[in-house]
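Researcher: Re-running this chain for the archive, since the previous output was lost when a drive failed. Same request as before.
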Amino acid sequence: MHVTRRTVLAGTAAAAALTALPAVQAHAVTEGTPPYRWRNAVMGGTGFVTGVLFHPAVRGLAYARTDIGGAYRWDDRAARWTPLTDHLGWDDWNLLGVEALAVDPVHPERLYLALGTYAQSWAGNGALLRSDDRGATWTRTDLTVKLGANEDGRGAGERLLVDPRDSDTLWLGTRHDGLLRSGDRGASWAAVTGFPGTPTAAGQGVTLLVAAGRTLYVGWGDSDGTAGSVNLYRTTDGSTWEAVPGQPAGTSAKVPIRAAYDCHTRELYVTYADAPGPNGQSDGSVHKLATTTGTWTEVTPVRPGGGDTFGYGGVAVDARRPGTLVVSTNNRWAAVDTLYRTTDGGRSWTSLKDAAVFDVSETPFLKWGEDRPKFGWWIQAVAVDPYDSKHVVYGTGATLYGTRDLRHWAPQIRGLEETSVVQLVSPPAGEAHLLSGSRDIGVMYHERLTASPSRGMATNPVSGSATGLAQAAARPSYVVRSGWGDHGNGAYSTDGGRTWAPFEGQPAIAKDAPGPIAANADGSVLLWSFVHWDGTKYPAHRSTDHGTTWSEVSSFPNGATPVADPADPTLFYAYDSDKGNVRASTDSGRSFTVRATGLPAGDSQFKLVAAPGRSGDLWLCTKWNGLYRSTDGGATFAKVASCWASYTLGFGKAAPGADYPAIYQVGSTEAITAVYRSDDGAKSWVRINDDRHQWGWTGEIIVGDPRVYGRVYLATNGRGIQYGEPVR
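Model: Regenerated C-alpha cells:
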C-alpha cells in the first residue's frame, strides 16, 4: 500500500486561478505573524466523545477521541484536557474526526491516531499520526483508504491496536478495506492477506481490535446475519486466522461493538447490538469468552424488549479487581441509558444510574432546559481508571461524565470543546460580548468567555441546531433566533439574548425547514428564510409584529440568507447564489429587486456581509473568486485584489487612528488558507493564526469584537468557538 510520510507542521491550501476582473487597489500581505493568543470560549464538551482510553501503565494519563473535533490528552495535574490535533489545517479538515486511537503499554510516550471523518467518495483519505511525546509532536502517514469517524459505528472500537507481541507492529481495522498491518510503527501499511472477512459497500468492516494476552481478536460488522455467520475472528501468531469457535446464539445478526479483556480471569467481554449505532439500535446483549477453555457465557444485564429497546455499547474492565467491569446501554430512550456494573463476572449487575447524583453546575446546558440532567445518551465510550476502581468515565453525545465514588457524577470535560458552531454575534453593548448558535445545542449567551454560559441553552423554546441568529444593529437589545425545536422554531429577545419569547406564530414551512433569519436595524421587521436539511429551498416570510403573523415575500431568492442594512431600517439585501446576483429591498423587506448581476454563482460557499454603522457597504465572500465590495447598496461590485479566496468575513473595533472597522476573514491571500486581519479596509492583510492553531474547517463565520480592538471570534466545525487576542 502506498503511503506518504511526513512530519506534521501545518496544512496548506492548493492554489487556484484568479479570474481577471476589475479590482480594488491592494497591497501584498504584511510579512510576519503578530503574536496572538488563541483560546476556546468555554461551553464544555457539547459533542460526541466516541472513545476514552486510560494508559494501563501510567497513573493519570488518558486520551479521548471525538467524531469531528480531534483528540485530547488528559492532564491529571491541571484536571483538564489538552487538544492534540489543532495543527490540522483547512485542507486537512477531514482529519479532525478520530476513527481510533492506540497507546503502547510498553512505551508510555507513544501514541497513535487513525484520522478520517468520512468514508464517502467526496472525502479525502485517512491518515495515521504517531507521536513519541504523548501527542506534543507528530509524524504523519497518509493512507490510501478512507476512514469514517463521523459515520455509523463511530462509537465502536477501538479499531487501532499495538501488537502485544511487538511494539513496532500496528493493526488498523477499516470499514471498507479490511484489516491493515504495519511493521514500522505506522510508517507504511499493507493489507492483511488471509484475513477471512470480506468487506461490503454498506457494511462496517472491522468494528474492534482487542488483545487478550498474545491473541488478537477482531470484531467484524459485515456478516450476513444468517445462522452461523461470523462476526468475530482471532489470530495467535499474526499470520493465521480463524473464526472464534462457538460464537453465541443470537449474535450472528448483531454487530460486535466493543470488547475488553480481564487478564486476571482470562475472560473476554463483548457487547453486541443489532446496528452499529449510535442511532438505530433496538436490541443487544453482552457475552464473555473464557479464552482458556473456549466457553461462551451470556452475561447481559437486562434484555431489551417491549417498549424498552436499546443496544449495548461500551465495556471496560477494572484492572485492579478480577471480574469487575462496567457496560453501557445505548440508544435507550424510554428508560434512559445507563451503566451497569458487576463485581462477579456478570452474574449480577447494578445500574449506576439508579443512585446517581449529578452536578452540572460547571456546564448548565446539560439540563437541556429541564430541572435536572439525564444520565446520558449515545454511551459507547466507557473507561475505568486502572489505578482507581471508583474512577469511571463515560462519554455521551454532549459531554464526558466522571465519578470518583460510583455515585456522584460531574462533567470531566474541561478543555474539551467539540461544538460545531454556525452562528456568532458580538454585541456593541451589554453584559455579553458574545452570542453563539451551534448545531445540536442551539443558542447560548456568553456572559463570560472563560466559563460555560450560566443560563445554558436558550430556552422558551428549547431548540437543537441553530439556523439563524441576528441582532438589530441600532437596537442591540433586540435579538432573534431560529433553529430546530420541538415547540416552535423561532424566538426573540428584548434583553440582548438573556431571555427569550417564542414567536406567537410561524409559517407552516418553519416546522420542517427553519433557515436563517434577520432583523432590520430597529428591530421592527423580521425576515425569515427557509431551507430544509436536504437542501430544498422555500420562499421567505416577513413579520412586523415580532413573529405573531407572517407574509410570504415572493421576490426574495428562495433559501438565501437575509442581510439587514445596519444603518437604514428600510433596507435589506440578499445574494442569489444560484443566479449570481444581489437583490435589495427599499421597503423594509416587502419586495426585492435585482441589482448587481454577473457575480460568481453555483457554489454554496458565498457570504454577503454588511459593514457595521454604514448604509450600503456590502462585502461578498466567494470560495473560488475571492472578495468583492459594494459601496452603493449592491448596485455595483469591485473585486478586492488582496485575496484569491474568501470563505467568511466579519468586522470588529477599528485600530487606533483608523477610520474603518477592522476586518477579519478566513481566506487565502497567498499559498495558505488562514485567519487574517486588515486594519486598512482590505488593502493589506496580516495572518493572525499560526501553524499550531488551524482547527480544520473554519469557513462558517468569523466576527470581531466591536468593543475590543484585535479580539476576534471564530466558529469551527468541531473545535468550538476560538477567540484570539493580540498579546500585549
